[in-house]
Amino acid sequence: MSLLAGHRLDGTSLNATSRRDWLRAVCAAAAGSSISQLHAAEPATGPDAQRAFGYLEAICKLGPRISGTEPMALQQQLVGKHFTALGARVSLQEFDTPHPVHGTPVRIRNMIVEWHPETTTRVLLSCHYDTRPRPDEELLPSQRNGVFIGANDGGSGVATLMEIGHAIPTLPMSVGVDFIFFDAEELIYQKPGKFFIGSEYFARQYRDQPPAYRYQAGVLLDMVADLRPQFYFEGNSLRLAPDVTRSVWAAAKAEGVKEFFPKVKHTVIDDHLALNQVARIPTCDVIDFDYPHWHKRNDLPAACSGETMAKVARVMLRWLRNL
Ligand SMILES: [Zn+2]
Q1: 64 Cα: distance to centroid of ligand 1 (angstroms)
Q2: Are 75 and 155 in contact (CB under 8 A)?
Q3: Domains: count for the chain
Q4: Which of 74, 149, 205, 230 is most deeply packed, by most CB within 10 A?
Q5: DSSP structural state of residue 189
Q6: Residue 300 lies in domain
Q7: CATH number, domain at 169?
């Protein structure tokens, strides 16, 4: 697939067909046995809040994951290994962009994680995995050159998708799903800067070199770990992808997750705009824009909640099952 030109991180993954064969064999073996044995073949638990939080901590321990830096490369290894071990196909979509300060090329890498790649009806779940270079929303100018870790803004989407990945191989669903990790969402040292370099490249590639499949819908996760989460309809999502947006909030209701409110509060510009307007993939943004530490030094794991990420994971798994 031309869209996925890039190198495999690991060639040892179990492919989707053999995973299903294995699952079928497990079910066939259980067919004549007791109910308890049948249940033993199913996933025992849903998303695990502690495990999700552990992923968030591991990502943040790498330091700021600014596009083109060593910690970003380490994150790519960590995330790639995680999904390969779970049976997904992992590739990188790579290109260069001029560094916004000194103009030398920065290698940008969107990561693409494919589940059931043979299925031609597909959806995508996405997030950005780079972090903003500086905490430039700090009130005091002297603090705006500090370290920005980006636990919620940059880390939480990754950790939540890592947690969701555990459930995908055995999830009953009729579509294939790709997880897309956008690089260079905010490679911005000085405002105003260029946002969404990775997602815009991905969307143009999808439009200009169409793959053999189509994405039917997409969801973007951004800042999904607040201790006191509030997920409202996002204005651009409701305008550009009303059906997808409503279906996600319906999944939250069905799942009993009360932190999803079906009314608009914020309208934001985010990676989902390129997906909607360039790639024409109806995509909604699940974003909690009432996070007090947005672009500040205290966007740290201590300001985040594994329970919130597990709730978002449950909503997304319900949404995938319902498709
Ligand atoms: Zn940000």
Answers
A1: 12
A2: no
A3: 1
A4: 149
A5: S
A6: 2-322
A7: 3.40.630.10
CA of 92 to the centre of ligand 1 (A): 22
How far, in Å, from the CA of 298 to the mean position of ligand 1?
Answer: 13
- Whether 68 and 198 have beta carbons less than 8 Å apart is answered as no
| Structure confidence by residue, pLDDT tens digits, 52-109 | 999 999 999 999 999 999 999 999 999 999 999 999 999 999 999 999 999 999 999 9
- Reading the block at residue 270, the tokens are 């985010």
162, two tokens: 């890592």
The two three-digit tokens of residue 197, written as one number? 């370099």
Token output for 290: 């009432």
CA distance 191 to 310: 34
Q: Enumerate residues with CB within 5 Å of ligand 1 (an ion).
A: 132, 153, 186
Is residue 173 classed exposed, middle or buried when 0-12, 13-18 and 19+ CB atoms within 10 A define those classes? middle
169 C-alpha to ligand 1 centroid (Å)? 31
Question: What is the pTM (predicted TM-score) of this model?
Answer: 0.86
39 CA from centroid of ligand 1 (Å) = 42
Q: What is the pLDDT of residues 107-152, one digit of tens each?
A: 999 999 999 999 999 999 999 999 999 999 999 999 999 999 999 9
Q: Which residues contact 296 (CB under 8 A, 6 or more apart)?
A: 135, 137, 138, 148
